[in-house]
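Problem statement: downstream parser choked on a complex file, so we are re-checking the raw output for the NAI run. The parser issue turned out to be on our end (a line-ending mismatch), but while we're here, posting the original submission so the record is complete.
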Amino acid sequence: MNKTNQHLPLKGQTSIVTGGSSGIGQGIAIALGQAGSNVCVNYHGDEDGAKKTKEIIEDAGAKCIIVKGDVGKPKDIATIFEKTNEAFGDLHILINNAGIQQDNPLVDMTYKEWDKVIQTNLYGAFLSAQAAAKTFLSQGNTSNNEKCKGKIIFISSVHDLIPWGGRVNYAASKGGLKTLMKSIAQELAPNKIRVNSISPGAIQTPINEDQWKDEKNRKALLEKIPYGRIGKPEDIGKVAVWLASEESDYITGTTLYVDGGMTLYPSFADD
Ligand code: NAI
Ligand code: BGC
């Protein structure tokens, strides 16, 4: 499609994507840019990855800045939001994507492994959502009470539903996100702020390399996916654009499972 004929559902809007230097965050940031949004790509350590995301977004004709910051640190969150405001003015979309795994069986799990995962996946998401809500509420725009004033999308996981032994820190962080998202959605709906989650299944990214690089592990992973393929960051990017657009204006407090059927308990299929 040539650039002038493109459908740009997010034209004139500004988004922040946390953890946008790789994987799902990178896929979402690119999809938002391709949909016409200005994008702030937050990154933690991988500056080259963030620059790559920016390059692809700018090639699509959208504007992009990259901002370094740890989502678990309130000061860094403030910087991310300030820099976005300086570059683009009003904010419309937050994608709460940054997340990590530090796996260990329960009895071996260190306090540090527990704390780091909760700090990044849960505190980070709380701090980012709080900053986005404050920003949306301070932006006025009260003249049209019918119009949505901001969108927050959490990138949760099928493991907000499926228990995951050996990763209790991760599963607890994602389970926590589920009620965090719903409670924030309930609180902010009267302010015309929509809050939802996307819960991906297995998406091929650096976080789960151990599950798809090796042929034996890849086969075992595919057995858990009725749809018969491992997901790609673009699968999540498309859904994020739709969930941030006016097309989904009546949706708030919902979790969309984008998982090729992983949550359908496939091992029961031929019981
Ligand atoms: P990834 O490892 O490529 O991406 C994680 C991103 O978070 C990286 O860009 C990393 O730099 C960033 N990050 C880590 N700690 C950070 C911090 N303290 N501050 C700011 N950024 C930080 O892996 P992936 O898969 O793209 O993960 C993205 C999100 O998707 C995570 O929340 C993960 O839990 C979730 N997810 C991933 C699935 C998968 O199968 N790949 C499935 C379900 C959920
Ligand atoms: C995890 C991945 C895993 C996927 C499906 C995600 O939340 O981060 O490692 O492949 O869930 O189990």
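For whoever reads this later: DSSP finds eight helices and seven strands in the chain.
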